[in-house]
Amino acid sequence: MQDEIIFVVEKSPEGGYEACAVGHSIYTYADTLGELQVMAEGAVRCHFEEGEQPSCCLAGESIAFV
User: Fold this and answer.
1) E-assigned strands of the chain?
2) So what's the pLDDT on residue 64?
3) What pairs with residue 10 in β-bridges?
4) Taking the model in full, what pTM does it have?
5) Which segments of 15-63 does DSSP mark as H helices, in order?
6) pLDDT tens sequence across 4-50
7) Residue 16 lies in a domain
8) pLDDT for residue 29
9) 63, part of any domain
10) For residue 25, is it within any domain?
């Protein structure tokens, strides 16, 4: 089992932020970085079976948390 999923974060042309998981077909978006963290965690929970979910890590040039 993978321990961590890394999301690459970019500002969306429509406003807000987009996140794409490296090596997985997991994508999400939100208006704020705080909301994006919550959305990414929810997307990972939906993508993996219970008990097999890795943690999330957002990575981007202006991300203040990892």
Assistant:
1) 4-11, 17-21, 27-30, 55-59
2) 43
3) 18
4) 0.76
5) 33-47
6) 888 899 999 999 999 999 889 999 999 999 999 899 988 988 888 87
7) yes
8) 95
9) no
10) yes
Dist. CA 41–CA 54, nearest whole Å: 9
36: number of Cβ within 10 Å: 23
CA dist 40 and 45 (Å) reads: 9
What is the chain's length?
Answer: 66
Higher pLDDT, 62 or 6: 6
Q: Which residues span the domain enclosing 26?
A: 8-54
Q: Is residue 1's pLDDT more than 80?
A: no
User: Residue 6 class from Cβ within 10 Å (0-12 exposed, 13-18 middle, 19+ buried)?
Assistant: middle
Give how many domains the chain has, as a whole number.
1
Within a domain: residue 20? yes
